[in-house]
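As agreed, record minuted below.
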Amino acid sequence: MVDEPFWEIPVHSPNTAQSKKSKKSSPQVEADVSSPVEGDSSPPWYPSGLTSEALDPSNLELGRRTPWGRIWGWNYSEALGASWWQKSPESWWGVWPSEVDSVRIIAHTQNKIILALDEEFIAHIYPLQTGSDVSTLVRYKPWGEILKDERVILPLGGLQNDNGDQLCIFPYHEIHTPQEVAQNLQSRNELHALGGAVGRLHSSLKQEATPNTEWRWNARLKAIEGSLKTTTLWRAPHTKHVQGLPPFNISLDGILWGEDVTLVPQPRPLVDYLLCESERMPALSTLANLEQTIALRGGFSESVPRASFYAGWEVKTPPTWGGRFLRNLKGGVWIWRYEAILLELARARAFQQPEAESMCMDWLNDVSRIQAKLGVLRMTNLGAKSSLILFLISLGTILFAGGPFTASSVGIGRIVLTSVFLFLAIGLHTYTDRNIPEPY
């Protein structure tokens, strides 16, 4: 296994990110495709930070005990050879390439092994199973019908058992190396196109959306915080426009760049599977998760701002999902950024990435400041609404109780008090609106 390519996009701050290089400038880019860290031969999908057991594919089906729960897998080693594919295992579905003559291992990535089968199919092997998110996109007909016209590459067939997807087979397509991904993350136009691609996907799935289940989303946060033992605690209400979408997981190695950005569905992240229940998550959750993944890998800067990414997404989504709703006191993007950072922290600990863990902890150390500001703004927002109600009541008493032009001191007092309520409502609303943290 040590000779097989291990792909991992390294975590680093934007300040240390390399400047964009032309794809034609040099075939030799500083190594992102690498062997495992010295002293650790584990591939990037194996959580060596959660278990001391060495990787042995032959006993993965027995599971691995971790502090966050049990991990289940399967013996994928025979699937790396052509003869295994020719036997057609019992539990396969869809298309099965039984006449495979050659199997080429393209890479081990953060959640799978990528194979080329006779240069006609691409197979994603999921050694550690986290459910059936990928195959369900096709096997559940309503979702498959929706997605067949979108710019996504869906599986043609696969293999699964009681623990979920074991592998999925895709049409042959280009695979981008980590160097190519890193270069695209430095391009404003590419990030705008990526946001647009995600927006199109989310909009297409809106017809299968489920109503707001904020109590379950907040329960997820509680579960993650409890397992990671963080000192932060954050919950948020959400508007009725925030709805749960069918799960279409996105990772950087599942993005195909070109004239049009194409997305390849990914399995549920291992740390998400271990730490919390599976839920229908809002579009903003997926978007913020992808944003933080990009940010931790130096993908945003002054010349390539987050605004490009979000602007591309907003153009393709309903008006009630973007704009002021991104900075709304009810939810907005900040709570989902927080969840994304918690999951990145979990991943850093699970896969022993100290630099990523440090960056996540630095972000979490600033949470109390963000929460304090949002808390004050929620109070001023409540004050503005209360003042408006009092203004309307006071105005009603003037118009219908004493008449609008009552000359008595009581009538004048009512007019003054009504004016005070009006100016207070306007002032508090203006203060709140101007000080809500910008989404990017």
